[in-house]
Amino acid sequence: MKRTRGDWLMSIDRKALILKAATQSFAQFGYKATTMDLVSKIASVGKGTIYTFFKTKEELFEAILNKAEIDLKEAMNCGFAKEGSQSSFIHSVFNLLDSILEFRSDHELFVKLAQEVRDIGTVQALEGIRRMELFGLEFLKQKLDLAIEKGEVRECDTTITSYMIFRLYLGLATEWNKSHSEPLTKEQIKENIAMLITKGIMKES
After folding, report:
1. Which helix (H) or strand (E) element contains residue 140?
2. pLDDT tens digits for 83-96?
């Protein structure tokens, strides 16, 4: 029997409902504890309906990560384009890094995945976090490549440079507090990274 437009729209609605329920389950219970039965219960649909769209939990998780990448890209584009008191490239980079950090801390799914990695080291949870980080790194690399083309930044290995900037910022923003009694402010982090990038630490002879 030929499917009508109404059938097609209902199919899309069911798929969106399943994705929403799965996202809720992964964010609330983590990757390991989430099952197709649990998603079925949250979505109020039969498990067979879920298997119509997603054959495995891995496929479902992959679809959720794909959607998260779209959301993260939008957040990074907004962050990089945000106007501030300065219009320099480094200021735009800091806005970009801020947007990535905020996405990680505000997105319930990644907060839960990070907790799961710390507590039990679930491989899939770790891969989910790494995937988002690699996505952010590639975005930063593309911005560096473009800045070099425009003459805003001198020639460098943008793969290494983007990794250094990203890890330095992330480390100071999230790891510093674990071994120091006094947390760093955003201004302190940005000031010190900007000094390293623009001036370095060696005195001119």
Report:
1. helix 123-150
2. 554 458 888 899 99
